[in-house]
Specification:
211 residues; binds thymidine-5'-diphosphate; 54% helix; 5-stranded parallel β-sheet; Rossmann fold; alpha/beta; globular; single chain; 8 helices; binds adenosine-5'-diphosphate
Length: 211
């Protein structure tokens, strides 16, 4: 095969995306795959700079519209410099959050801006993942996990449980809208149980991609 595979993890804060993305990358590497593990916002030098602009500071620092532009600008840089070259080189790209997060967080959380998000996505990004793993779980549990990390990047987590509940519902609806690429996994289990589930779906997806 000459082209790689693009896998994303989605879900509410604290659902276990970073943990599972890392575990999946380690397992696939041990099986001989070339893996690029990356995240959004971020994943390239410019996008990491935009990350600190959007994730730190006052929750009202940016309007929802400005946020859409910032997240999309970061995504475009990440796509050009990290994701597309790796896919073209036949690698497996595992990304912690991608455009579905913008559809949810900016498209839903402060009014109905989904149409604007989709329009900008088709203009500037125009690429969906080959497979999206949604780690679904109860927001109260997710928030407890996320808060226990104690980082300075708490702007979104500060939005609280109400928003996370809306996000969970939104992600589940999105998984039906894009049923061809979404896999929904129950995140309220041990890390190893979740990882085994993630791996079995990924192995299916990667069949045919030379290890
Ligand atoms: P996310 O990237 O979705 O915000 P993380 O992977 O950073 O979530 O996990 C949030 C916190 O919960 C971390 O401290 C992590 O160690 C812990 N965690 C992850 N998965 C589980 C799990 N299955 N059970 C219990 N704790 C978990
Ligand atoms: P992330 O570092 O993945 O946080 P967590 O590990 O807590 O899930 O993402 C940081 C925050 O950025 C998260 O609250 C969701 C938000 N976000 C958006 O609002 N829009 C986006 O397009 C992306 C990629 C993230």
């Amino acid at each position: 095969m000459t082209t790689g595979c693009f896998i994303t993890f989605e879900g509410i804060d604290g659902s276990g995306k970073s943990t599972q993305a890392k575990k999946l990358a380690e397992t696939l590497r041990s099986q001989g795959f070339e893996v690029v593990l990356t995240r959004e916002p971020g994943g390239s030098e410019g996008a990491e700079q935009i990350r600190s602009l959007v994730l730190e500071g006052d929750p009202d620092r940016w309007s929802a519209e400005t946020e859409i532009l910032l997240f999309t600008a970061a995504r475009r840089d990440h796509l050009e410099r990290t994701i597309l070259p790796a896919i073209a080189a036949g690698k497996v790209v595992i990304c912690d959050r991608f455009a579905d997060s913008t559809r949810m967080y900016q498209g839903l959380s402060r009014g109905d801006l989904r149409a604007l998000v989709d329009k900008l996505h088709s203009l500037m990004i125009g690429r969906e993942p080959d497979m999206t793993i949604l780690i679904d779980m109860d927001p109260a549990e997710g928030l407890k996990r996320a808060k226990s990390r104690n980082t300075s990047e708490e702007r979104f987590e500060d939005f609280g449980e109400g928003l996370q509940r809306q996000m969970r519902q939104g992600f589940l609806e999105l998984s039906k809208e894009y049923a061809d690429r979404f896999i929904v996994i129950d995140g309220a289990r041990s890390q190893d149980e979740v990882a085994a589930d993630v791996l079995s779906h990924t192995t299916n997806q990667l069949k045919g991609l030379a290890a």
